[in-house]
Amino acid sequence: MIDCAGVPSRLRPTRRLRVLTTLIAGGCLVLFAVFEAWWPAIVAARVFGSLGALPVEETREDAGV
Questions:
Q1: CA quadruple 51, 52, 56, 57: dihedral positive or negative?
Q2: Contacts 24+ apart (CB under 8 A), 49-57
Q3: Are 12 and 4 in contact (CB under 8 A)?
Q4: What CA–CA distance (Å, rounded) separates 38 from 36?
């Protein structure tokens, strides 16, 4: 907790401000945790999705040889 002794009352953070900043900070932490967990999957989907389907090797039977 921040020690507000000697600070004028108009400069002290209100309860609403403390709650708001705590919620914002918590939301940022949650977003960071979700992004940190999912970014490899997102990048892989973007990379492989932009390449289209990966080519499949054609066997001799498929080629009719």
A1: negative
A2: none
A3: yes
A4: 6
Q: Distance of CA 36 to CAs 23, 32, 43, Å?
A: 20, 6, 12
Apex CA 15: angle with CA 13 and CA 17, to 5°?
60
Cα 33 to its chain centre, rounded Å, is 6
Tokens of 45: 């989907």
Looking up tokens 């990379």 gives 47
> pLDDT tens digit string along 5-54?
777 777 777 888 889 999 999 999 999 998 888 888 888 877 777 655 55
The pTM for the full model equals: 0.47
pLDDT of residue 47: 77
Q: Which two tokens stand for residue 54?
A: 């990966």
